[in-house]
Design brief:
Helix content is 22%, strand content 28%. The protein has 258 residues and is α/β, with parallel strands linked by helices. The strands form 3 sheets. The protein has a 6-stranded mixed beta sheet. Strands 6-7-8-9-12-13 form a 6-stranded mixed beta sheet, with helices on one face. It has a two-stranded antiparallel ribbon with strand order 10-11.
């Protein structure tokens, strides 16, 4: 399996300022290495983690989706991150996967953060999603999803789990612990991208965007500053680990029901 070059874009975001945030990330994306294939932006990167969903939601034909499509085409890379999207009269915290050809794939956040009343303002997603980039199978999740391993149990259907987040500094230790745990239990790479600064609700964030290998070892961890962190993930190393230490063969076979 060919390597995958992954870039995590860590930054503060500007509260309820989509155009300014698009400009902000344009500047950061100008620092991408040429060989990067997959670029991951944070949760609600165009607005901040806001419950003013009716005010900030965009349609799938809106300016942020169009910006992601234009950026993916211009850079010839897959661009992904979550955006507040209105569709069919419902509002979602939606992960958008945008390849250079502009054909968007989506995952809607399943687990809404009730301590911020997210469940009152956003519709829950109904399906786990696995995407492909070359030989790599990639599963997206959004922030609070990270706490619910059963939903994202690897049934040998992904190699990389991506978590886009606004994960508060007050629970930074849990962020790293859960990312590492998801990597070990699923025998997959796990990449988490977080934000910096203080949002419009006064919640502080300390970054800590990280990549963990399938054995739980740290591949890379960002300091508390705006950065583009890029690492090359080895598909062969992943396959070798799964072959030499085949935990997956003893996994319980079960199905989720509503």
């Amino acid at each position: 399996m060919q390597p995958l070059t992954l870039s995590l874009v860590q930054s503060h975001t500007l509260w309820h300022q989509p155009e300014a945030n698009r400009d902000l990330f344009d500047g950061l994306l100008s620092k991408l290495p040429a060989d990067s294939q997959l670029v991951v932006l944070p949760e609600m990167f165009s607005t901040g983690f806001s419950m003013a969903s009716a005010d900030i939601a965009e349609p799938m034909t809106g300016p942020t989706v169009r910006w992601m499509q234009a950026t993916a085409s211009r850079l010839q890379k897959v661009i992904c991150g979550s955006v507040v999207i209105e569709e069919g009269g419902k509002i979602f915290n939606r992960f958008l996967w945008v390849p250079p050809d502009g054909v968007v794939a989506t995952y809607d956040k399943r687990h809404r953060f009730r301590m911020a009343d997210e469940h009152q303002f956003y519709q829950a997603g109904g399906a786990k999603v696995c995407l492909t980039l070359g030989e790599w199978r990639i599963c997206p999740m959004i922030c609070y999803d990270l706490r619910f391993p059963v939903w994202f149990r690897n049934r040998q259907d992904y190699d990389l789990l991506i978590c886009v987040a606004n994960w508060p500094q007050a629970r930074q230790d849990a962020w790293h612990t859960l990312l590492k745990a998801r990597a070990i239990e699923n025998q997959a790479y796990v990449a988490g991208v977080n934000i910096l600064g203080t949002d419009g609700n006064g919640v502080a964030y300390a970054g800590g965007s990280s990549i963990y290998a399938a054995d739980g070892m740290v591949v890379g961890e960002a300091a508390d500053k705006a950065t583009v962190m890029t690492h090359r993930l080895s598909g062969d190393a992943l396959k070798d680990l799964r072959k030499s230490f085949p935990v997956w063969q003893d996994a319980d076979d079960f199905l989720l029901t509503e």
